[in-house]
Write a structure and sequence with these properties.
Strand content: under 5%
Number of strands: 0
Structural class: mainly alpha
Helix content: 55-70%
Radius of gyration: 24 Å
Length: 299
């Protein structure tokens, strides 16, 4: 890089500097704490005075009675969320694409997008009240048709599906806008030619719209593989309780309980490191697949 070019680009580097410093301070420097996963860490001691135990914390983690169930819960909930957050937004985008009244279309877009900005702390309290088996509006409607009330947040059968449904309701508005933006990239002349040939709206959707969305669908699907072990700590933590640990406990909540609740910092760090390593592998694979099938590249 020539001196003249460096001087010309100096404002851009200066603009990035605060962000880079924050990234180093809060993302890279704390990575030194990974050493705790290989130690019997004592609070108040530094990394050098705590005894090293090698892989003992990882062996202990795998021998815990609920570890396999927690891993299954995480994968089950995450896969269902990923699937729902693809199917529902695509369906919604296709339906909105057929609306000709722009005021109605924009109003619906705004309404479905608003829940995306509500935090799970606030939304958790709202859902606890709405889904209450005694006075919640949902169970009031269920009982009005002669069915027994359902304890959505206290039944191990219903809790995972409640997590997926509420997460989809909160998030699908954002993904709908992504797919609506992708729809604008489809050549309008294809629809005109199909209309001249006598194709119905359903045929146009099957033969033009869905194939036009296929690249972005493949891209988002492959990139979502990196989130297979992220089942949503904020949501689960604000909605679950001891009665649904069997079906609702995930890796992140397990780390929280072991680390902060039981003060087993070494074991919690080992669990978190295990998740991070697996997530890193999955993210790498997902970007490789995204480049292979959707020609998506980071650099």
């Amino acid at each position: 890089m020539t001196t003249r070019k460096w001087i010309r680009e100096m404002p851009l580097h200066a603009m990035l500097l605060p962000t880079v410093l924050l990234l180093i301070a809060f993302s890279y420097v704390p990575m030194a704490g990974i050493a705790i996963a290989f130690q019997h860490f004592y609070p108040g001691h530094n990394f050098f005075s705590s005894p090293w135990v090698g892989w003992e914390n990882f062996r202990y983690m795998l021998q815990l009675p609920g570890t396999m169930q927690v891993l299954y819960n995480t994968l089950f909930i995450a896969v269902m969320k990923i699937s729902a957050n693809l199917v529902v937004p695509i369906t919604m985008a296709l339906l909105l694409n057929e609306v000709r009244k722009m005021w109605f279309k924009r109003s619906v877009q705004t309404l479905v997008y608003l829940p995306y900005f509500i935090s799970w702390v606030l939304l958790g309290g709202i859902l606890v009240d709405i889904l209450s088996p005694s006075h919640g509006i949902v169970n009031q409607l269920i009982k009005s048709v002669g069915l027994p009330s359902v304890y959505f947040l206290g039944d191990n059968h219903w809790f995972p599906f409640t997590l997926v449904a509420t997460n989809t309701w909160k998030e699908f508005g954002f993904n709908t806008i992504v797919f609506l933006a992708a729809l604008t990239g489809i050549n309008p002349s294809l629809y005109e030619a199909a209309c001249i040939d006598g194709a119905s709206r359903w045929k146009m959707t099957l033969k033009i719209t869905l194939p036009g969305l296929l690249p972005i669908i493949i891209l988002l699907t492959t990139l979502s593989l990196g989130n297979v072990l992220n089942a949503g700590f904020d949501q689960v933590f604000n909605l679950y309780n001891a009665s649904v640990y069997e079906s609702g406990d995930i890796i992140d909540t397990m780390v929280y309980r072991i680390g902060l609740g039981d003060a087993q910092y070494s074991v919690a760090t080992a669990v978190g490191l295990f998740k991070s390593v697996v997530s890193f592998i999955l993210i790498s694979v997902s970007y490789l697949l995204a480049y292979r099938f959707a020609n998506y590249r980071i650099f």
